[in-house]
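Working notes for the structural subgroup meeting. M.R. asked for a predicted model of this chain before we commit to crystallization trials. I am recording the input and output together here so anyone reviewing the notebook later can reproduce the run.

Input as submitted:
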Amino acid sequence: MKLVGFFNRDGGTFRTTDMQAYERRAEEVFGEAGHDFEALVFSGSEIVPAMQRAARRDDIDGIVAGGAMERYRPPHRSPGRTGLRSVSFRLER
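Returned structure, recorded in token form:
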């Protein structure tokens, strides 16, 4: 799968994380699992618009997001299948 990872450098523990090292490790882990993965780091104010732009792309299969986004509230959607799935993971050192 072709995936793009969006990481909020202003969120939670990412504020004290070496984000360049995290980007490299995320790309390594997803690559080892057979995925084409691009990690991108944004500030909290930039991440949601960047994810919205990526969601309109037809050349990627999925989006991975990391970092606290408590300020973002998605628009109301009717119940039903959206095709989206949330998965939590932790990159081990």
